[in-house]
């Protein structure tokens, strides 16, 4: 694998930026708003560490942040339409039939009570219960790279049960309470409806619930979803296994464990010890009558080499899928962790200063577009150098 030259990379940046700006131009009826949106995108991609309104305005040469703020608030354009553009753009550049759709959430730390969806709730971003917003995201991860393709803002019941508060934040009147797994299922079903090319879904313990499993089985998609140690499993048509995930793990003999890499990390292969218990083989037609083939339900267990800490995953995969494959699917969860870190540190994902429903969704959609563009550039700038075949050499000699 070789990297593109500096000149080629700069050309990629320029052409890619022109491309994404042209794609979102039809969203804005007013040319001035379109220009401000372009400058907003430039600001997200700029070198400033803080992507606040004032910082973006200064980078754009504006006397104040008002034009930048208008893009998120006062102007009229559809953030959902931009997310569709982001998804289609990401797929044009990163699509692969074996891709993994990774679901996870992240927190946006806030002060006060006015920001849409804010409340005291747990977020892994801070590692504690704190005042924040929570966004649930879907990242598309393939061998070509990874990018966000959808998102949902989680509204606690303290919000959905308070019509005045909802109206003040301009939340659409038909918005009802939805759990985080329900929001994840909405995004998965939206991706399936849009014919997004993927074969697997990976997520942590928040999303290892029945409604997501059912939707994926009906769609013919495999999954590796985290579950709690107390989650109960039982086998049928296979060697007898019954009990909680932790009880099953503790009862496994040494030969049942296999040391595998879940993928490359910053310090090399991410090695853990893994065990896989097949629980049942089922015909796909039992989940969706139009589908055929034998699928296996199972329990995947990951053990930390250093301290023996255990993690558990409910799995659904075509019969014969190896433990090596399942470990790598679970390892794709790093893609969304990397996406959150990069989008927050470099693209201002958590620098949104608006308080409204529309402000949050528009800001996040623009960051998603910036992230997808950088993912596409990274992919195209690191394509393999074409092999110098005999025909290529002959053409070169003819020109010389």
Layout: helices, strands, pairs:
Layout: H1 6-24, H2 31-45, H3 53-60, H4 66-72, H5 79-94, E1 100-109, E2 119-123, E3 128-142, E4 145-154, H6 157-160, H7 163-168, H8 180-193, E5 200-203, H9 210-219, E6 222-227, E7 232-234, E8 242-244, H10 245-250, E9 258-265, E10 268-283, E11 294-303, E12 310-318, H11 323-331, H12 333-346, H13 357-381, H14 390-399
Helix pairs in contact: 1-13, 2-3, 2-4, 2-13, 5-13, 8-9
Walk me through what this model shows.
With 400 residues, the chain is α+β, with helices and mostly antiparallel strands. The protein has a domain at 204-334. Helix content is 41%, strand content 25%. The chain contains 14 helices and 12 strands. The chain has helices spanning 6-24, 31-45, 53-60, 66-72, 79-94, 157-160, 163-168, 180-193, 210-219, 245-250, 323-331, 333-346, 357-381, 390-399; strands spanning 100-109, 119-123, 128-142, 145-154, 200-203, 222-227, 232-234, 242-244, 258-265, 268-283, 294-303, 310-318. The strands form 2 sheets. Strands 1, 2, 3, 4, 5, 6, 9, 10, 11 and 12 form a 10-stranded mixed β-sheet that branches. Strands 7-8 form a two-stranded antiparallel sheet. A hairpin with a 4-residue loop joins β2 and β3. The longest helix has 25 residues, at 357-381. The protein is globular and about 70 Å long.
